[in-house]
Specification:
Chain lengths: 322, 319
Amino acid sequence: MTDPVLDVRGLRVEFPTRRGVLTAVDDISLTIGRGEILGVVGESGAGKSMTGMAILGLLEPPGRIAAGEIRLSGTRIDTLTESEMQKVRGRRIGAIFQDPLTSLNPLFRVGDQLVETIRLHTDLSKSAARARALELMREVGIPAVEERIDNYPHQFSGGMRQRIVIALALCAEPELIIADEPTTALDVSIQAQITALLKRLCRERGTAVMLVTHDMGVIAETADRVAVMYAGRLAELGAVEDVVRRPRHPYTEGLMGSIPSLRKDMDELQMIPGAMPRLNSIPQGCAFNPRCAHAGPRCRRDTPRLETTGAACWLALTGETA
Amino acid sequence: MTRPILEVDALERRFDVSAPWLNRLLEGKPRRTLRAVDGVDFDIQLGQTLALVGESGCGKSTIAKLVTGLHAPSGGAIRFNGDPDKMQMIFQDPYASLNPRWRVGRIIAEPLRTLRPETPEPQVMARVDELLRTVGLAPADAAKFPHEFSGGQRQRISIARALAGEPEFLVCDEPTSALDVSVQAQVLNLMKRLQKEMGLTYLFISHDLSVVRHMADVIAVMYLGRVVEIQPTADLFARPLHPYTRMLLDTIPDLEAPKRDRAPMGGEVPSPVSPPPGCSFHPRCPIALDRCKRERPQREMRVHDRRVACFAAEESADV
């Protein structure tokens, strides 16, 4: 059996502060195979972006990986030095962030930025790199590339800018792309274009994609499997159809019920009582237990764990919560 | 039929986006006008919710500001058939819309103190207590500052403030788009409950079709400063008439149909500074006729009692 492109085991991210150590990501294990899109979904503060940043080696100090292993196609990358990691980022892992303007330098023409990135990661000549840049821009669906290649980022619309960021991420043909809320700043019609593009690239090139977003709709449409995060932990992980249609974790169920339906008339939306705990007050046992209607003594005592798929919930795991 | 509480008639708002005078003089740049709202009309019946839906730049937030008087119209008319003091607004960003230096009690009491300065102070405080309870917060929260609250709680404070003057009509501009879905559910449920209990009328502005479907009685779809279609909610979802509405409905991710391969809508919204001639949607429209490139479809056009601004929809209805 071949190694998965990304293999994360028992990842924990901690932030030491004056008032104690905060655990932002706790015991996350997941894999992404070639050509697979894994959605990572959760509400603000669930730790989904932090997981992506940890994989990219971009945690802001004092944040640090406190436990766990991250493997890229079989080799560990969490133990690499910063200069070794710099070679992995861009070349083997591409990144796409929410705001395309943070990834593009406003003072340089987009073509020059593409050429620079291509030449950094390959030994193509300047003219060959430019030809490659044109090809990439065409591939991500930018019209009239010959004219647009010498434009500056501000001359493009938001959707077109995000396409250029995707082209930049593709420069070195990475094995893995981490896309953090890539469509959140875009209108629905443009959002659909970008997710369709990601799906196509993933299918055609066999790139593994980790799609981090708060939007369950985008996940449902784009991802093959989905990991639902809550308070820094995995609540549920499974095939997207299963998680969306038959959620097994009470949190996922509540989350799905709180989204207004496009088909059913609902008098009231389902509400999850309370709010997600702060990092300094994560309850003992299952982090969701104070908000859960099914919580029993075991949920307040022991932390449920999910192995590779399913729900981290005592009720789902053992059929009881006593 | 009773008189609507709000009547908007041929409403227009233009913004001057020309280069500065000296640049125009030296570089010969022309004057440029952005037509943010370009001939919009709709009515809202008492106790109902009308939603304006559309993508960024379609003019929906400008209409909110025109209706509440934060902008003056450049043309057309807005008639509010109620007491102007009974109109309030809820904004999108619960971080920017509350004064960070004021305690929550003072924020909520402000409309009361402004609109009815003769109210005795103990009565104001009692009302603040009551409002906090109505929106699901505790009376003790009056002594806290906005930064002590989460986004959802802040939006509850905004709602309590809007309710302080006992309004009849609320303009809500993307009230939940800055919130997580589970928090959004709490705020939407609260808004629906308040509407039922107090008989409120909402002008509800959102880009999210699933939220709009849940909240609105009537939906107006906007594109580039114009309303392209108005229908009761159920009809709009069952039989969208305008090709833009149809494309919008095809584009939104559907949780009930995971892993669907959708055909994304081509092209982008053109600049409102130089909209295409004729129907402004024609460059992206799959069924555009020659006529659509020259003539602008009129808003009065009716297809089976529903209003749609589209020649193609009208012609197919004639058959």
